[in-house]
Structure formats: C-alpha cells, structure tokens
C-alpha cells in the first residue's frame, strides 16, 4: 500500500473483523481499484452488501472454474443452467454451496461430485470461450499499450522523493548510533590525551609535531573506515527486501546513505581537531588551522568510502572487519613515517595509501618550503630535509595528493555501488 502498487493481492483481508469494519475495508479497496489499480482478494463468507461491491467474482471448486464474471450476473447465470435457490438468500452463501457440491433444488439426485462436474461442464460450454476472448482482447490492448507508451513509469515516486524519504530515515536511524555516549567519550578521550602528550610542542620538537600529524592522519582514517564497514552489512536484509519489492532505486538509496552520513561523520573529527590543534601548540594563525582542519575532513570522507566499499564487497561483518584491519595497517606502514626507505617493488602501495596522502597534506598545511627549525644544538635545518617529510616527497606536490584522494573518494564509492547492484535486484520474467 505504501508503494502505491499497480497490482495488489489480498488473502482474506476482512477475516475476524466486524461487518462495519469489513465494509469500510472493501469500500477502500474498491476506491483503489477504481483509481486504476488491480485488486485481487479472497474473502471469507461475505455479506450480500460486500458481495455486490466487487466488480467481478471467480468461483472455483477443486481448482476448476465454475463462474467468472460480474457479481450482478452470477445468480442469473446459475439460474439459467438450472441452479437457483428455493428461497431468497445471500448470493455468496449460495455460490459457496455450489462450489461444495450442495444444491437446493433440481439436482437432488446427484451427489456432490456429480453436481461439481455438471457445473464445470456448464462453465466450459457457456462461459469458457467468452472469458478467453475477453482475456485475449485485454492482452492485445496491453501489448499495444506497452509498445505505444515508451515513457511508461517504472517507479511510483520520483528519484527526489525516494531520496528525501531515505535521507530523513537514515538521519533518524543513525544519529543515535553516531552520537552515543561511548563514541563521544572515545573521541574526547583520544583528543585530550593527544593534546596533553603533544602539549605546546614547538619547532624545536619537529619530530613530535610530525608524529602528531601522522597520528591524526591514521586515527581519522581508521575511525571512519570501521564505522562505514558496518553500515551496509547491517542493512543487507532490509536492502534485499525493499529492492526486491521495487520500493526505490539503488541510486537514491546509495546517495541518501552517502550524504546522510556525511554531516554526522564530520562532527566528531571537528571536535577532535579543534581540541588538539591548539593544545599541541601548532601555528596559531587561522589559515594554518583551517587548512589542516579541512584536510582532516577530506580524509574522513575518503576513508568512509573505503569502508563502504569493503562492507559492500564482503557483506560479512567478521570478514570485512579483518580485511579492513589489514588494509588500514598496510596503509599506515606505507604512510612514510615508520618506513622512510620503502623498497622499489613495494613503493606502489604508498600511492594507494590514504594515510600517506593525508599525512603529506597535513605537513604542507603547517610548513612551507624554505622554513627552518633548530637542530644539532645552535644550528638550523630546512624543514623539507627532515627524513619523514622527505619520505613523502617533501612539501611540494600537494595537488597530486589532492587529486589522488579525489579519485579514491569517487572510486571507492563506485566499487560499493557496483557491489550493491547484486543485492535484492529484481529479475524480469520472460
């Protein structure tokens, strides 16, 4: 009913209801049918008022048709073949008696089987051909209509309507999961401890500052990745059910999921970076802070895409978690901080590492080429000559990392979307 279906099957929708409620339901269904929908239903012992509300009735006995046509013509048809009630009675009760082989007059000498066979033969003789002819005409019209109407709508709602409903539903479902007390305390605890460990570090402790940026890049890669990994496997059953029912387009679901998670996912890193940046004693100018802040958010949305891709491809929470941990660990090791001299045959990994690109961008947001720091007593050294900074290609080439992360942002989500296409896809019947 919510999907506004063109065809509706109902199995005894009035069973167990009082006559007034049953009449209201049948009246509502009749209005739906008159609005252009096809409603097929079985009904248990309807009253005469309910019986005459139907447009057509199909009477079966042991799987054999005894009558198909207008309700108002049913009694006249059975009277014409010799089956008429001896006293006025509910037409539905009379038809059920005939379906069970019970006759009031005219055929008392026949047993139940004989009465049923007589009715089946009468249907084949009097109604079968006309019913087949009507159905053939209807089929020809439907084929013509389908060929003529190239713009026939497949969906009952527009893409935007589906997106809006799914977007709002997603916000309501996940806001409590994201902002539960434990997650907020987790981020606050990590932020406060990190700020205290790197408390008011300056350029004389360049290694500590570089370590802070590497930790921030890693933490805000792990956290959103594992948050997103759980999303699609947990929604698999609902997605299968709703997609197989044709409730919405996959594109509207995926876009609502992606955009709905973004504002929620970005709140916690905002709290973390705002807290730790000033506690760590980094450059107090707003431009430096905002550059690092937006790079962190960029890392979060890219890592979220990685998590969605892993979850969509694997669709098993345990396996996806293990795979996510392995990939995150490899990206961390190839990030340029722990291993500066990566063997040539392994260097390709660092170009796939979100942590490496984020680490490079964070360094570029804080330091400039030609900037110096105190080293070896009273000497000064160039910041770009510091080994971990040299390992990520120095302070140049920031645009390359931005583009690489943009490709990952789109690519991971494309992988997730393609993987979801196999979930709950409806198949056309030949």
TrEMBL record:
Pfam family, one: ABC2_membrane_7
Domain ABC-2 type transporter transmembrane: 161-367
Gene Ontology cellular-component annotations: plasma membrane
InterPro entries registered for this protein in UniProt: ABC2_TM (IPR013525), ABCG_dom (IPR043926), ABCG_transporters (IPR050352), P-loop_NTPase (IPR027417)
Membrane-traversing stretches: 179-199, 211-232, 253-275, 287-313, 320-339, 402-420
Membrane topology: Multi-pass membrane protein
Single annotated GO MF: ABC-type transporter activity
The UniProt record lists the keyword Repeat: no
Localization annotation: Membrane
Keywords: Membrane, Transmembrane, Transmembrane helix, Transport
Protein name: ABC transporter G family member 9
Source lineage: Eukaryota, Viridiplantae, Streptophyta, Embryophyta, Tracheophyta
């Amino acid at each position: 009913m919510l999907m506004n279906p063109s065809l509706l099957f109902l199995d005894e929708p009035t069973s167990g209801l009082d006559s007034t409620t049953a009449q209201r339901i049948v009246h509502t269904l009749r209005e739906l049918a008159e609005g252009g929908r096809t409603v097929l239903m079985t009904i248990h012992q309807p009253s005469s008022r309910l019986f005459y509300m139907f447009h057509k009735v199909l009477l079966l006995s042991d799987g054999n048709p005894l009558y198909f046509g207008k309700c108002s013509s049913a009694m006249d048809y059975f009277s014409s073949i010799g089956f008429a009630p001896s006293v006025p009675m509910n037409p539905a009760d009379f038809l059920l008696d005939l379906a069970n082989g019970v006759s009031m007059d005219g055929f008392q000498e026949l047993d139940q089987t004989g009465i049923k066979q007589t009715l089946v033969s009468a249907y084949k003789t009097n109604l079968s051909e006309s019913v087949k002819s009507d159905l053939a005409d209807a089929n020809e019209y439907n084929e013509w209509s389908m060929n003529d109407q190239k713009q026939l709508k497949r969906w009952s709602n527009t893409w935007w309507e589906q997106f809006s409903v799914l977007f709002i539903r997603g916000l309501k479902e996940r806001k409590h999961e994201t902002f539960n007390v434990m997650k907020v305390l987790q981020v606050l605890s990590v932020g406060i401890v990190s700020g205290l460990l790197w408390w008011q570090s300056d350029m004389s402790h360049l290694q500590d500052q570089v370590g802070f940026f590497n930790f921030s890049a890693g933490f805000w890669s792990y956290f959103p990745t594992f948050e997103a990994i759980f999303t699609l496997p947990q929604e698999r059953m609902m997605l299968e059910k709703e997609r197989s029912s044709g409730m919405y387009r996959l594109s509207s679901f995926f876009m609502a999921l992606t955009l709905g998670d973004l504002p929620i996912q970005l709140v916690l890193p905002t709290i973390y970076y705002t807290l730790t940046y000033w506690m760590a004693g980094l450059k107090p100018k707003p431009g430096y802070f905002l550059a690092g802040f937006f790079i962190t958010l960029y890392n979060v949305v890219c890592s979220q895409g990685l998590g969605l891709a892993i979850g969509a491809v694997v669709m098993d929470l345990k396996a996806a978690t293990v795979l996510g941990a392995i990939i995150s660990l490899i990206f961390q090791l190839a990030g340029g901080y722990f291993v500066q001299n990566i063997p040539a045959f392994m260097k390709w990994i660092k170009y796939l590492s979100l942590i490496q690109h984020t680490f490079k961008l964070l360094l570029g947001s804080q330091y400039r080429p030609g900037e110096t720091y105190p080293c070896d007593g009273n000497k000064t050294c160039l910041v770009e000559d510091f080994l971990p900074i040299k390992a990520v290609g120095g302070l140049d080439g920031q645009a390359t990392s931005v583009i690489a992360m943009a490709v990952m942002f789109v690519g991971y989500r494309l992988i997730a979307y393609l993987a979801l296409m196999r979930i709950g896809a409806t198949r056309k019947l030949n």
